[in-house]
Amino acid sequence: MASIKTILRKTSLRNGKYPVLLRVTKDRKSKFFGTPFEANLNEWDSKLGRFNKKFTQQLKSNRLIGKFEDRALEVISELEMNQDFYTLNDFERKFRIQSNPEASNIFSFWQEQIDEFKAAGRMSNAAIYHHTKNSMQKFAKQKSLHFYEVTPTFLDKYEVYLRNKGGTGGGIGVKMRAIRAIFNVAIKRGIIDEKFYPFKHYKISKLKGKAIKKALNIEEVHNLQNLDLSDKPHLINSRNYFIFSFYTRGMNFADMMRLKWSNVSGDRIHYTRAKTKGNFIIKIMPPVKEILDYYRKTKRPYIFPILLRENLTPTQLNDRKRKTLSKFNKDLKELASLAGIDKPLTSYVARHSFANCLKQKGAGTDIISESLGHQDVKTTKVYLKELDTAILDEASELLLQGNI
């Protein structure tokens, strides 16, 4: 059981007075918390932890001290009821939030999360959180908003606001998931109580993107792979990136960008996926070996000519990724036209195509799930279901050709 007492600090201020502090002790360790008060030694009763009659406004000030102590006891009682074990740091976190309303400002905490992402080099997450925070501030029309004000009704109205701005289900879902993540971290860190969690009633699952995943079949992949680009050398790198991604289980562009020759060992590629931190060991198949041989003549540490030097800052890495990925997707449109592929071709289609082709060859969902690095097979089932929709649409077109 923690104990509390209001005391005078032993060291005086410049004016000769002593600050009044709230001391909280647990397991023979103490933490001290400031109050708005200070006093001379002769104005303080150290046994009672209160101002004596010599202090101006003694009664009013003592009542305020009592409120500080009551608040501290309330936090201690709540911690002891809800946690088998708690520390003074747990107490401090809860007590400061109750003492400082700004601590429950969702936008202040949100910015802390953005700064943490940037410090960790997770620039994509930082960008999503930044854009969502700005969007919600514009909707709320205020710079300060407390967690308890973000209710299911608030989120419903925010969703309507986003739709009126042209937002789609998928785009709105990204923002709502960012808000949900902010709440989850705030609850985990003891910033807010779980009773303020709005996502028990507001369901993000209803916000499903309408875009159907597009995928190539193996014949289309081969058409792209066998293109003669002797008169279009500006497309060689982009074709290589797509084919390499397809034959390395849909490797993400961000991971390809960071891939070094040190990741290649014998007939295997070893790497850690940036998004999930999962470790992958990929067997080097002939198309991949051909691409590796094409770039092996260079003396760069990175396999692909995307990152041209090492030790880039997270911001520089993100800028380089964005610029190169934009050119890659632009080149893929031209490559699709040359290969006779009448489908929107983007960098992520390589991953969709890998899953689609595995399924067409009869691979089980569990195998496809592990190959893609999904942490839950349910994710893979949703993934494949969306691909099935696109395949069924194409099959239905046979009715127009009389080929049934």
Automatic annotation (TrEMBL):
Pfam families: Arm-DNA-bind_5 (PF17293), Phage_int_SAM_5 (PF13102), Phage_integrase (PF00589). InterPro entries: Arm-DNA-bind_5 (IPR035386), DNA_brk_join_enz (IPR011010), Integrase-like_cat_sf (IPR013762), Integrase_catalytic (IPR002104), Integrase_recombinase_N (IPR010998), SAM-like_dom (IPR025269), Tyrosine_recombinase_XerCD (IPR050090). The keyword Transcription regulation does not apply. PROSITE patterns: TYR_RECOMBINASE (PS51898). Gene3D superfamilies: 1.10.150.130, Intergrase catalytic core. Keywords: DNA recombination, DNA-binding. Transmembrane segments: none annotated. Residues 211-397 form the Tyr recombinase domain. Belongs to the 'phage' integrase family. This is Site-specific integrase. It comes from Autumnicola tepida.
